[in-house]
Design a protein that fits this description.
- The protein is of the alpha/beta class.
- It has a single domain, classed as Metal-dependent hydrolases (TIM Barrel, Alpha-Beta Barrel), CATH 3.20.20.
- It is built from eight helices and twelve strands.
- It has helices spanning 21-31, 58-71, 91-99, 131-145, 167-183, 192-195, 212-221, 240-252, and strands at residues 5-6, 35-41, 77-84, 105-108, 112-114, 120-122, 151-152, 186-190, 199-201, 204-206, 224-228, 255-256.
- An eight-stranded parallel beta sheet has the order 1-2-3-4-7-8-11-12. The protein has a two-stranded antiparallel ribbon with strand order 5-6. A two-stranded antiparallel ribbon has the order 9-10.
- A hairpin with a 5-residue loop joins strand 5 and strand 6.
- It binds zinc ion (2 copies).
- One zinc ion binds at residues 8, 10, 83, 109, 153, 230.
């Protein structure tokens, strides 16, 4: 029997969500969660991406999470994490999040990446050229191999774009699955794509993500999978989209888990 857990939780600090830390804890308590992991969009010291908390807000956020952790110690496990991209120039920053700010985990959410020709690609707005999916896969695989990340959020996010499945797609998915297996980074089946509703794509009516072909391959590989709410409102912490995610996981024969396999240990 799986424990009720969620490691993918946002707050109003990201400027596209509602509810502060305490509101999510109360919602988690009502939903009967045993573990609540905060993973709001992580800021960078140079505030390079917008629509997220500012770097100057990070310590206040972590302090509030730690206070709630202490207050609800007997009722649930509250963890302090962040959802963040893998940027090749930021290894020392990720390291410092563990060493100096004592973060519990990082969730890799590759919302943008650089193509092999050096162009910045928004994962939510990708051209139909599927070679870009290989660049996406390279970035997330390199990220997983650093050891900083415990979970790969919505690995299949690029399929929110109308990509036509081909050999590049197959190869990119294979590399992601292989690297997840090799590193112990958990794949996240993300409920937020379900909240976007089914849409007409070239390959038929489907959710933007989760993308069936990716998950059927993950099931065949026997990789452990974590269902993530990716809630941007306390009312969505355990909603119909979560129930649908579990239903799909059953349909695809996924091996679900309720705990992290890999935790980063700072070097000193
Ligand atoms: Zn968000
Ligand atoms: Zn998220």
């Amino acid at each position: 029997m799986l424990k009720k857990v969620n490691f993918h939780t946002h707050t109003a600090l990201c400027r596209h969500a509602e509810g502060m830390e305490a509101d999510y804890v109360l919602a988690a308590k009502q939903a009967g969660l045993q573990t609540l992991g905060f993973s709001d969009h992580g800021p960078y010291p140079d505030n390079r991406f917008n629509v997220r908390m500012q770097y100057g807000e990070l310590d206040g956020h972590l302090r509030r999470v730690r206070e709630l952790q202490a207050r609800f110690l007997m009722e649930m496990d509250i963890l302090a994490g962040l959802e963040i991209e893998y940027c090749y120039d930021m290894d020392s920053y990720y390291e410092s999040l563990f060493q100096q700010r004592h973060l519990d985990y990082l969730l890799l959410g590759q919302h943008g990446f650089y193509s092999s020709s050096g162009a910045f690609i928004n994962s939510f707005d990708m051209p139909s050229d599927t070679t870009l999916l290989l660049d996406y896969a390279k970035t997330v695989c390199d990220g997983m191999r650093t050891g900083f990340f415990s979970i790969l959020a919505h690995p299949d996010l690029p399929f929110l774009n109308d990509l036509v499945w081909d050999e590049n797609c197959r190869e990119a998915c294979r590399r992601i699955l292989y690297t997840a297996g090799e590193t112990g980074v958990l794949l996240e089946l993300n409920a937020n794509g379900i909240r976007r509703g089914q849409k007409a794509y070239s390959d038929g009516l489907r959710y933007p993500y989760p993308y069936p072909l990716f998950w059927q391959e993950a099931a065949r590989a026997g990789l452990p999978v974590l269902v993530g709410s990716d809630c941007h409102s306390p009312s969505l912490i355990w909603d119909g989209a979560m129930e649908e995610a579990f239903r799909l996981a059953g349909e695809w024969g996924l091996h679900l888990t309720d705990h992290l396999e890999h935790w980063y240990t700072p070097s000193r």
